Each structure stands twice: as structure tokens, then as C-alpha cells.
């Protein structure tokens, strides 16, 4: 048996699988970020610990025999968060999360420093970890002076589970401290942001053993001694492991809170000026690239809040059949944007609202705006040499057939819908544990899920949506100086 933990921004999911990777049981716990000031987003690591304890306690009660047979665990976590520990391992302040924008000035400063993009392979985004520590140094100097180690959320959970300070390559690639091509901490990247090598966790591959489960936790959850904890992965790399998106041309479109177009890469081919993320994959010798938008289903959730209709009600009004682009346009920049703009100041808006505009028109515009933004990501990936041969559609938004067909048509790429089952980040984390425990090779374990249906682009409407996308692209340069 194997365990995968998926630490999301709003909750944790624990998945117990057997030796074939088939689900045996799962448990979830919710928690929420706090926003003490505009642009700030923080979380108390104690919430993660309580969530894991509750979820694994539930699994231990429901599946005691299976839990006693667990051989390995893996953790997936939301990326870029800064969890600061003192020399004794105590948390010094709430974790600064991926969607926190307070360090925009520090990010721009680091991004302009010599060799930073060359070594990290990426733009230094405000959400990355390095600018957060520069902000702490300038605004909370007492905390910075006591910081002995900086851990990402998944690495902090590894520390809680094992007492060891280690992190995997895929998660660490999003710090702006890792030489992503060399898969090692960079002395230059650390120095330019005022950090030291001894403040970094030990690096391991995602499927490599980092430590063993603490005996007291093993006893609490009815697990045997010697359970290994592998390096784990950042959430998107773990999701890629869960759906078998490991190599060149295989990938997915994720319609979650944020939106992602991701593809595996067999080599290291960064193009930072495109705002594409080029990160180490969670297994040795592989990388992946992705374009990221900050508000995908979050855009529909926002419209739900202001209209009083649930996201499902809004989607139902559109039906399942595309009828061409609407006149209304929406920019989905509710929290700024990453790919391709790297703009933390830009904000969302509608264009072409008139007296006859309806709630249905606004919903269609929101879905189209997200689809167009994902097309921006796809175009940036293609510019870096990436192929988008085989894409799955995953995430909560993929439950809308209308939205999936819309995105397939805008991207002009078929999108496959996985069959029902567990195939996300929690499964990817469990699969990494399986490889680490010797249950099989990466190729044997990281396989794609069965496909329920493949939704092809609507050939009759691709031209109309291509024209609408071209018109939509003109909006950002026209309004970016107005926010």
C-alpha cells in the first residue's frame, strides 16, 4: 500500500492506493488562506499538520489493515510558498503563499539582476519564493535574522513527517534559487537574494527517498516502522505524474482555481522572456514546461459571487453546444497575470457591455476569456519549441463540456477527458512513493488514465474563434497602462 498527500491552497486530500495504484480509500480536510492586507495571502502551517493528522486518522479508522501495509508516502504541495523555520524547527511566521503579490518590486529587482534568468530558466515572478525572502529581509528583519531554513509547503510536510529537511527538484525549481538545468541550488541565485546555501533543504528527486516516517506518527496512524517518505513534487508536476504526462508532447490543460497548459520535455529548453515556466520534473532527467493563468475557475466563481447563481447554474445556461464567440469580452486578470504578461498590476474587466447584455452573455465572455488566456499559454509554449500532441482536460472546470469544447476549438487541439477515477496530484504523489519503494519503474507506473471521451475542435467554428482570439489579444496592450 502507498499514500499520496495533496496539499492544496484550500484543503488537503489523502489517497491510499494498492500495489497496482488503484484507490483503496481517501479522506479530505479543508482549510483556508488568510488575507490580512490587500495582495497578501498567508497560511498557518499548523493548519496543514492538523489536516494531515485528521485525514490519516480517518483512513486508519476506515482501513486499518491497509494502513498497516503502507510502504511509502509522497507529498504534493502548492508551489512557491515560503515557510520560515528557526534553528530548532519552529515556524517563525505564517507561510507566504504562491498567490501573494506583496513582493512585486523585489521580484522585478531580482529578475533584472545579472545571470538570474539564465540560471533559473524563468522570469522571477512575484509569487516565487526568492522575492518573498527579500521582502521579509526588508520588512521583518528580526524574522529574517532568525531564519535557519526556508521550506516550501510540501517540504515542510516532509519535515513534519520525518524530521528531515529535504525538498524535491520540481517544487524547488519554482523558488528562483535553483539552477534548473543543473538541478542544484545556485550560489549566484542565493547570493543575489541575500540567502545562504545552509538555509536550503537537501535536494532529492521526487521518487527518491528523503527520510522515514517518524515512529510516533506511524504508531498514531497504525502504520509499520520504516515507511519511506519520498521527495514528492510540486502540485503540477504531481498532477503530471498522475496522468502520465512525463515526456515530450504529452500534457494537460487544467481548469482549476488557476489555469495551466503543461507539457513534458525530454530536455531543458527555457524561454523565460515568454513567461513560460520551465521546471524540473519530479523524476530524474526530465523537465516540464507550463503556461499559467492565475484565474480560471476562479473567474467563474467570481461571477457566481456577484450574480448569486452557482457556477453550475451559470454553466447550465450555456448548454453543451458552442454557438460561436459572443460580442462581450472578458479579461480574466482578477489577480494579475503570469503567462505571457508577467503583470501583477493588471486587473480583470469586461468590454462591450451594452443595455442588452445578459447574465448568459457574461458567463460566455468569462469562459471565452479564460480559453483565450489559455491559448496565450499554448502559443508561448509553442514558441519555446514544445509540442502539444496529446492533451488531457482535468480540473473542476472540465466538468463543463461546453468549456472543454470551447478550449479545444480555441487551441485547435483535441482534449481527452479521463475516465472517472483518481488521477490527480494525490495519485501522482502516491506513484512517486511506489517508484521510490521499488514497486516499478517510472515508465511502468506513470501511465495515462483510461479516456472516457475525446472532444475535438469544432471545425465549423475554429475560424470564428481564431478571429475572436486575435481581437481579444489587442485588449491587454490597450489597457495595461490604465490600471
Automatic annotation (TrEMBL):
Substrate binds at residues 79-80. GO terms for biological process: D-xylose metabolic process; xylulose catabolic process. The record marks 6 as: Important for activity. Keywords: ATP-binding, Carbohydrate metabolism, Kinase, Nucleotide-binding, Transferase, Xylose metabolism. Residues 1-242 form the Carbohydrate kinase FGGY N-terminal domain. It catalyses: D-xylulose + ATP = D-xylulose 5-phosphate + ADP + H(+). CDD domains: ASKHA_NBD_FGGY_EcXK-like (cd07808). Signal peptide: none annotated. Residues 252-436 form the Carbohydrate kinase FGGY C-terminal domain. InterPro entries: ATPase_NBD, Carb_kinase_FGGY, Carb_kinase_FGGY_CS, FGGY_C, FGGY_Carb_Kinase, FGGY_N, Xylulokinase. The keyword Heme does not apply. It is an enzyme of class 2 (transferase). The keyword Cell membrane does not apply. Pfam families: FGGY_C, FGGY_N. Catalyzes the phosphorylation of D-xylulose to D-xylulose 5-phosphate. Belongs to the FGGY kinase family. This is Xylulose kinase. The gene is xylB.
